[in-house]
Amino acid sequence: MKGKIKEYVFITLGMIMVAAGLYFFLMPQKLAVGGANGLAIVINHWIPILSIGAIMIIINIVLFIIGFLIVGTSFGFKTIYASLGTSITISLFERVIPIQQPLVEDIIIQLIFGVFISAIGMGIVFNQNASTGGTDIIAKIINKFFGIELGKGVLISDFIIIIMAGFAFGPELGMYSLLGIILNGVVIDWTIEGISLCKEVNIVSEYSNDIKEYIVNDLERGATIYNAKGAYTGEKKNVVVTVIDRRDFIKLKSYIKGIDKDAFITVSNVYEVLGDGFKNIEE
User: Fold this and answer.
1) 47, 102, 162, 207: least buried by Cβ within 10 Å?
2) Residue percentage of the chain with pLDDT more than 90
3) What does pLDDT average to over the chain?
4) With 80 as the cut, is the pLDDT of residue 283 above it?
5) 257 with 127, same domain?
6) Residue 173 and residue 165: Cα distance in Å, rounded?
7) Is the pLDDT of residue 273 over 90?
8) What is the DSSP letter of 104?
9) What CA–CA distance (Å, rounded) separates 130 from 122?
């Protein structure tokens, strides 16, 4: 239950960031930086009788059905929450903080701020196995079947929207939108990697048993012990290997420093960990 609450707290934070990036920076400049929102802006230009909100709803309903059938119900329910929450948040912004013109005249500044804020939000939502809707769902499907990173999946699925934006609003806005989508994909992957980053720690110490006990009992993490032989001394030693998050790594390093200043430690960054205590391998 606690884990579910944490998931939805992060999803809520992410969808608010997505809504803010879209509403305050991208939408005023008609920057169709992919997604259902970008596609809706383009379609609205050609069929103004349909509102952008109505078009987004139609697009998302179709993609939700695909998401349920292919990715699974868990992804679908969380995505519905994130997508509807994003739309509702944008509607609240429209009522409380109406914008008649862009915040600044410089379209590059609007593009950079809008993409960074919304892409970080999307990365947070993606990391909880959800989506803000739109073509994000297609990116998740591509990731599931082909292992392509989510940011690159978004880039692939949104490319056609850029072509449409170029025809609708001219080549200049089309090129700005293309730049935004490329930046968007990079920031999403960077965000996901940063959130999921863990440390693989290899420890050679005379106090390997104490260190193992600390990892298991105090940090409540697993560890593996290997029997090794020093190439220079020929002495038999134990090597303790564990994968922990950055906060626990700081605690572990402090503990080892307190009991064995001669310990030999190597540390590697791990960007994805699947299994007990980490992300479910089925996600």
Assistant:
1) 47
2) 25
3) 83
4) no
5) no
6) 7
7) no
8) S
9) 9
Give the tokens for residue 207. Answer: 């106090």
Structure tokens at 139: 């990116």
pLDDT of res. 184:
82
Verify that 134 and 241 share a domain, yes or no.
no
Q: How many domains does the chain have?
A: 2
Residue 138 has pLDDT above 80, yes or no: no
CA torsion through residues 63, 34, 37, 166, sign? negative
CA distance 62 to 146: 22
> 115 to each of 31, 34, 47, how far by Cα in Å?
10, 11, 26
Q: What is the length of the chain?
A: 283
189, 260: one domain: no
Asked whether residue 59 is assigned to any structural domain, the reply reads yes
Q: Both 105 and 177 in a single domain?
A: yes
Q: Looking at the structure, do residues 17 and 114 belong to the same domain, yes or no?
A: yes
Q: Do 136 and 240 belong to one domain?
A: no
In degrees and rounded to multiples of 5, residue 269 shows phi and psi of: -80, 135
Whether the predicted pLDDT of 173 surpasses 70: yes
The domain boundary, picked from 139, 160, 195, lies at 195
* Residue 29, both tokens: 């400049």
CA atoms within 13 A on the CB side of 138: 18
Same domain, 165 and 245: no
Name the DSSP class of 27: G
In a domain, 277, yes or no: no
Most confident of 28-32, 41-45, 215-219: 215-219
Domain end: 141, 164, 195, which one? Answer: 195
Q: What is the pLDDT of residues 14-38, one digit of tens each?
A: 999 998 998 899 888 888 777 777 8
Angle at 192 between CA 189 and CA 193, to 5 degrees: 85
Residue-level pLDDT at 5:
85
